[in-house]
Amino acid sequence: MKLGFDFPAYLPWLIGTAGLILIFYIxxxxxxxxxxxxxxxxxxxxxxxxxxxxxxxxxxxxICVTLIFFLLGLVLIGVYDVEEVSHPKYDGMQIVFVLDxxxxxxxxxxxxxxxxxxxxxxxxxxxxxxxxxxxxxxxxFAEIGIPYVPYLTSDATLFQWYLxxxxxxxxxxxxxxxxxxxxxxYEGLMLFTEEKKKxxxxxxxxxxxxxxxxxxxxxxEEKFAEAAKKKNEMQNxxxxxxxxxxxxxxxxxxxxxxxxxxxxxxxxxxxxKKDEFLLTSPNLWFLKDMASMFGGVYRHSTTGHDLKxxxxxxxxxxxxxxxxxxxxxxxxxxxxxLISALVLMFFFPILKSP
Length: 354
Fold this sequence. Notes:
By secondary structure, the chain is an alpha/beta fold. The protein folds into two domains: 109 residues, no CATH class; 228 residues, Rossmann fold, CATH 3.40.50.410. It contains eleven helices and 13 strands. A hairpin with a 5-residue loop joins strand 9 and strand 10. The two termini are 40 Å apart.
């Protein structure tokens, strides 16, 4: 055990004062001893009358008083235990989030919606990752992938600002609709630099196209081929595809006014289902197949409550350890000293002697 003190300059004074108390007590006891010897004339008779004088009990009482004073003094000067602990030192990584921006992400099977919950948990997980030296990027995709944070940034505050500017209106009014996850994946890969750092790409999607007029099959196949080729060219990239939404039910996609009130629900605009309400449910098979084809790992969050922890574990499990650093950690032991002093105070009356 290695001890430390908040006020180490007072330690010699504490030890000296405790020593003086003990010396004074011993001197007083032997003074009384000499007085009783004059009265009884022999130590033999003095031992027979233990109520008159008990040398052992008096000495223990003196030690008890000294210890109580010393323990309370240690508490006052702020004693603590110093323990040397080995902590891993991790290397910073390049982390790119790829977020599904199709209309189906507005479904409210997850509160407040799949899209809003994904943004909220990305914000929370990047706060927890602050200070680790990571560089962050963000891509939004629907029919096409768009780098929303156009370059990797180590400024967590700037990344949070970009997240704060994301609004569901972007999905409804500005982003060409569809669910081209391959293009989102490709644009995410393009954000990575040649820096020799571990690279992690996290795609968050429900895997469900939200309209009937998305990109044609040939275009999707071309984008898939581009993304697969780019992934094979890059080294040290780990891909994780995180599904979001409740696959056990189909959900409506609300249309809201400027005050956030639901005024209608999205409907099919053409085809056999024209004017019918558009229903959405996470496509787990599609997401699993995409993860497998891209050489990634698939995870799913049904309620959104575990989304932050899921993303955090995904990222931290990929973080390389550079070295282990020994750090001295402080542990407060004053409560144990106080308990010891109270125990001694409890036994103090038992040691009382004339």
